[in-house]
Specification:
Chain A folds into two domains: 35-278 and 295-347, Rossmann fold; 348-378, no CATH class. Chain A contains 14 helices and seven strands. Chain A has helices spanning 35-60, 74-81, 98-103, 108-112, 126-129, 142-161, 189-201, 233-236, 248-263, 293-300, 304-315, 320-343, 350-354, 362-374; strands at residues 90-92, 177-182, 205-211, 214-215, 218-219, 240-244, 269-274. The N and C termini of chain A lie far apart (68 Å). Chain B is α/β, with parallel strands linked by helices. Chain B has two domains: 19-202, Rossmann fold (3-Layer(aba) Sandwich); 236-364, Rossmann fold (3-Layer(aba) Sandwich). Helices cover 37% and strands 17% of the residues of chain B. In chain B, the strands form four sheets. A five-stranded mixed beta sheet of chain B has the order 9-11-10-13-14, with helices on both faces. A four-stranded mixed beta sheet of chain B has the order 5-7-6-12. The chains are: A alpha/beta, B alpha/beta. Chains A and B meet through helix 5, helix 6, helix 7 and helix 14 of A and helix 3, helix 4 and helix 5 of B.
Chain lengths: 378, 369
């Protein structure tokens, strides 16, 4: 940053204009992905690919009213999610995080229920799975991750101050929140507020940006001033790393570094995974109106699953036969999911009323009674 | 509450077992103090709520007493304050965020309406939102733009929110405690023009001493009920002044004004009942029906603009429940459909005594055509 004129009189107070800035902390180094982890990445990514591709056909067949495919983002989603511990960490997804949900062990029928228009947030138990319910306001849940993360800091300090638990919360580090957002979401003011709050409170949160090149029809260059969301980290004093989002092992490593930083109590980190949305924004979208097939082929680069497959075979981590077995298991999983999604029926209408509050109001009970009387059909 | 009650702390630490004379600001401060003491998961956050104690000093001294980690200043960003509160609630805390002035709730509307109000529903009850948002509300202090707004209809319209407004120190103390203990989101609208008005407050500790209908220091059972310290008293409206001829329905700062109007009307032989609605969502329809069923006439008074204001909802509830016995259509005395004006004009905007008396007159003189 260039400083002009006389130094402000407040110079010398940390962080003020003109004062020397602390260099950004380095994210800690971590072990590279092991052969077993590469195989696990492949197993999950091929499953996610097959479920995702199948979901598009289910939409065409009328099984799902709509779907937002994640085609091409399998490495970014699975690679980042595997860096976390779903038993203690918490993920805040967008509506395009099938790969994260699958890696977190969320029941896939319950996940698909949001796309089947069964229940907006999805049917899975967010408290038990540590995957927040889906919400549709882009960047709407980024601040929630910061709040949840600060809660972990408060819990750890409270445990440390307690008489009998002086070591609690420190030995294994802090539970970490990860919030998923895209290049489009980075334009929302809530992302600025979230990064600023996170840095001020040193919250253990990882901002995982999937820069997939497109926000529906608007390309990144018309969306992200400066060209990089990660570059914004410097302004907040948040260490950030940009990673090839189609290299699953690199994503896993980058996210692990960010998680290790947050877990150790050093505050937030940003990972920007450069990837490509190979499919439409959603099944109702028509990418031909804003990009050509030639452009797609050129910009998308190599398929992340093909890349991982090539590396696994080259390094002798697994055999062709083992990978084919994983592909076959994925196909069977997709077929089982198809049957599960077809079998998934509508929720009872009474839930409209019963789930608004923990303690429903009398007025809501009256409306429910009237609905039962006048509208309920068996 | 009986006029005979006096401050009687008898050397006991204030709040421990006393009936106290407090301002609304002091009563809210005491409630927060007791809530932080009883609930280790309770947190207070917002702009200037920590070191400064809030611009209205409602959180004064709380950070020093309960720790800077439980009562803390945030950056100046309302969406951030609400979004962070939602995340803290997801982590098992009971946040009590403050937005500094009503008009600054607008930058947080996405987080309040799309997120806070929906999280319990969206998550099918797995992620409750025990968050009480304190909002210094309404006009009457000649403040700059956006420092005097009446947002109750906006919030009451949103499924998933509960809305409440206290009228005096006792109600402030009792209702804030009730709101924070609820497992659902509550918008708590504090009438900022009444912050410094004093009144007697029966604390929970005093109520828990048991009743003393024999004339002892402890409050009587009637006083405890009137103070809103019983379960029944916490969820509904209350009669602020009984009367026979007409019901004035009000909330927040308008309750005190309606009590003044009732005294003036009494000089003309008109016996006005003042119903303090307290809860603006849910509205206590039974209390409205009981009161207006008796008086057969009603005027609803609010500071907010008239069109689609909460007065319309109140009037419709009364019409549904009391149509057969009403002597006149329910009258509304409200602010106007204009942006909240500058201080020089706010007395023209907020329902004043004359306008409320005219409203009463129109109802009393109504003749079926």
């Amino acid at each position: 940053m260039q400083t002009l004129g006389t130094r402000p009189t407040t110079a010398g107070r940390a962080g003020l204009a003109g004062a020397p800035r602390e260099p950004l902390p380095e994210l800690p180094a971590v072990e590279a992905a092991t052969g077993a982890e590469l195989a696990e990445l492949y197993r999950l990514m091929t499953a996610v690919r097959q479920l995702d591709v199948a979901a598009i056909s289910w939409q065409r067949q009328g099984i799902l009213p709509a779907y937002a495919p994640e085609l091409g983002q399998e490495a970014a989603q699975v690679g980042s999610a595997l860096a976390l511990d779903p038993a203690r960490d918490f993920a805040f997804p967008t509506y395009r995080e099938l790969g994260v949900a699958r890696a977190f062990g969320v029941d896939m029928v319950e996940y698909m229920s949001t796309h089947k228009a069964t229940w907006h947030g999805g049917l899975w138990d967010a408290a038990a799975t540590h995957l927040a319910p889906i919400q549709a306001v882009v960047a709407g849940s980024v601040l929630h991750a910061v709040g949840w993360a600060h809660g972990q800091t408060l819990e750890a300090r409270s445990a440390a101050n307690g008489p009998a638990n002086s070591a609690a919360g420190s030995a294994d580090g802090l539970p970490v929140a990860i919030t998923y957002l895209g290049d489009g979401a980075s334009s929302q003011g809530d992302v600025h507020e979230a990064m600023n709050f996170a840095a001020v409170f040193k919250a253990p949160v990882v901002f995982f940006v999937q820069n997939n090149g497109w926000a529906i029809s608007v390309p990144t260059e018309k969306q992200v001033a400066g060209g990089s969301v990660a570059a914004r980290g410097a302004g907040y004093g948040i260490p950030a790393v940009q990673v090839d989002g189609n290299d699953a092992a690199a994503v896993l490593e980058a996210t692990r570094r960010a998680v290790a930083h947050a877990r150790a109590g050093h505050g937030p980190a940003i990972v920007e995974a450069m990837t490509y949305r190979r499919g439409p924004h959603a099944t109702s979208d028509d990418p031909g109106r804003y990009r050509s097939l030639d452009e797609e082929r050129e910009d998308a680069g190599a398929d992340p699953i093909a890349r991982l497959r090539e590396r696994i075979l080259a390094e002798g981590v697994a055999t062709e036969a083992a990978l084919a077995e994983a592909d076959a298991a994925a196909a069977a999983e997709a077929e089982a999911l198809r049957l599960g999604v077809i079998a998934l029926g509508p929720r009872p209408g009474a839930e409209m009323f019963d789930l608004v509050f923990q303690e429903p109001t009398d007025e809501l009970k009256r409306q429910k009674a009237a609905w039962r009387e006048e509208s309920e059909h068996e | 509450m009986s006029e005979t009650l006096t401050v009687s702390n008898n050397g006991v630490a204030p709040g421990a077992s006393a009936t106290l004379e407090l301002s609304l600001q002091g009563a809210l401060n005491l409630a927060l103090d007791e809530l932080l003491a009883e609930d280790p998961k309770a947190l207070v956050l917002g702009e200037d709520v920590g070191t400064l104690g809030g611009v209205f000093r409602v959180t004064s001294g709380l950070a020093a007493k309960h720790g800077a980690e439980r009562v803390f200043d945030t950056p100046l960003a309302e969406s951030g304050i609400l979004g962070m509160s939602i995340g803290l609630a997801m982590a098992g805390f009971h946040p009590v965020p403050e937005v500094q002035f009503d008009g600054f709730a607008y930058p947080a509307v996405n987080q309040i309406v799309c997120q806070l109000a929906r999280m319990n529903y969206r998550s099918r009850g797995a992620v409750p939102m025990p968050v009480t948002l304190r909002v210094p509300s309404f006009g009457g202090i000649r403040a700059p733009e956006h420092h005097g707004e009446s947002l109750e209809a906006l919030f009451a319209h949103v499924p998933g929110l509960k809305v409440v407004s206290p009228a005096d120190p006792q109600q402030g103390y009792s209702l804030l405690k009730a709101a924070v203990r609820m497992p659902d989101p509550v918008i708590f609208m504090e009438p900022k023009s009444r912050y410094w008005q004093k009144g007697l407050v029966v604390t929970e500790a005093a109520a828990n001493l048991g009743t003393a209908d024999d004339g002892g220091d402890a409050p009587s059972s009637a006083e405890i009920t009137g103070a809103g310290l019983t379960d029944a008293g916490l969820t509904g409206a209350r009669i602020a002044r009984p009367g026979r001829h007409l019901t004035l329905v009000a909330w927040g700062a308008m309750v005190a004004r309606c009590l003044q109007v009732a005294e003036l009307a009494a000089e003309d032989g008109i016996d006005v009942e003042v119903l303090d609605l307290r809860w603006l969502k849910p509205i206590d329809a039974d209390a409205l029906a009981t009161s207006v069923g008796k008086t057969r006439r009603a005027v609803v008074v609010h500071e907010a603009p008239r069109t689609s204001g909460l007065g319309a909802e109140v009037a419709q509830i009364i019409t549904e429940r009391c149509f057969g016995t009403l002597k006149a259509p329910v009258e509304r005395v409200t602010g106007f459909d204009v942006p909240y004006p500058s201080g020089d004009l706010e007395d023209e905007y907020i329902p004043n005594i004359d306008r409320i008396l005219f409203g009463i007159q129109r109802v009393l003189e109504y003749k079926r055509g």
